[in-house]
Amino acid sequence: MGALSYHLPDSLILFRRFRHHFLSLDSTMSDSSSISGPRWYAVQTLSNQEGKAKKYLDKFIAIEEMEDYIFDVLMPTETVTEVKSGKKNTKIRKFYPGYVFVNMRLYDDDGQLLQKPWYFVREAQGVINFVGGDRPTPLKKSEIERILNQVEEAEGKEKPKIEYDIGEMVKVNDGPFANLVGKIEEIDPDRGKLKVSVSIFGRYTPVELEYWQVQRTEES
């Protein structure tokens, strides 16, 4: 019998190639003398306009002939789930609300700001400004590596909107046991359920609750 093989999703394979490529570029640009090359920059956006800013930049890079300056626009996200009344809801949550990250060439060989790509990003829909204003500072290698690691770890996964730990103390805020404090004994993230031991008439009783029916106590 031949050895079993596991095939990664195409999206994850492409992301890993992209990650390796840009980290390799960044590793050769660790000082100010190499600022003329492709670097990652943080760009601040209007509230809840991150997606619009990324969509605009992605769309107009070719139209405005920016391919020699701008190489990628990243809006890091993760998929989170919440189960309420037995119904599972899934949504996309941003890692860095109010920001997108652009891999681009922003300075010439003399360290002078390139006006064309600078204005292109500055004038994009939803964009407020570069972090650093009129003299943007590129992200450090450790900073962009952390961001890319977050994206890779979240690829193809779902996580609960709120995560609890066994043994954690919570306060019940809904139902017949409202305002009682109990300890989490079991966690079922797939169903969005917790088994919590609460004190009723001096005796600890296990009750099953949904995530949204409890909140962390101040002691937690």
Number of domains: 2
Mean pLDDT: 85
Distance between the termini: 52 Å
Radius of gyration: 23 Å
Strand line-up in the sheet with most strands: 11-10-9-8-12
Q: Outline the low-pLDDT stretches.
A: 1-15, 24-33
Can you tell me about this structure?
By secondary structure, the protein is an alpha+beta fold. The protein folds into 2 domains: 10-160, Alpha-Beta Plaits (2-Layer Sandwich); 169-216, SH3 type barrels (Roll), CATH 2.30.30.30. The protein contains 4 helices and 12 strands; from the N terminus they run H-E-H-E-E-E-E-H-E-H-E-E-E-E-E-E. The strands form 3 sheets. A 5-stranded antiparallel beta sheet has the order 11-10-9-8-12, with no helix packed on it. A 4-stranded antiparallel beta sheet has the order 2-5-1-6. A hairpin with a 4-residue loop joins strand 9 (181-188) and strand 10. The model is unreliable at 1-15 and 24-33 (pLDDT under 50).
